[in-house]
Amino acid sequence: MTRTTGTGFAPRTVGFMNMADQRSGEAFELGEKLTVLGRKLQPGQAAPRFELDHFDGKGISTVRLSDTHGRVRLLSVVNSLDTPVCDAQTRRWADPETVVPPGVILYTVSMDLPFAQTRWMEAAGAGHVALSAHRSKDFGIAYGVLIKEWRMLQRALLVICRDERVLHAEYVADQMQEPDYDAALGAVREAAST
Q1: Residue span of the structural domain in which 110 resides
Q2: 113/134 Cα distance (integer angstroms)
Q3: Tell me: the pLDDT tens digits for 36-53?
């Protein structure tokens, strides 16, 4: 279904996803093949805008990609913080040996409720911000990480440059495996140095 907005001529897709945007078997766990919705982002592409929730202990605020315009962003996408591999991935960024350059914005993104994220981050001593995509599938589809069968996000690492372009995108197929942290950190350092 398409709807033309305003008096413009360009149609906008509303509530419909092309079947080609369903990537069957591109994610799996313990032999279970999963369907991922949305297209994989490629280096050089514009990073899709997003609006995600963050609970700071007092209230929920909306965090947008545009809030950090001009900064390098590292998005660490996980299924759920309360699972072993996601726990390890998120704790990795709190490890003193993992040096994220100063000024780089690090977000962990999942579909966990923002309250649960804050509880987990505080208990783990993680010093970065967790963002929740629980309200809608928009982030998951736009970033090509929504697992249809689970309504959770596929494990991924994405580096977004100051100019809102994707520099690095790793989509992890095996949900029991951690991503390549070194490759993401190399991209972050490259982006931070320009």
Answers
A1: 22-192
A2: 6
A3: 999 999 999 999 999 999
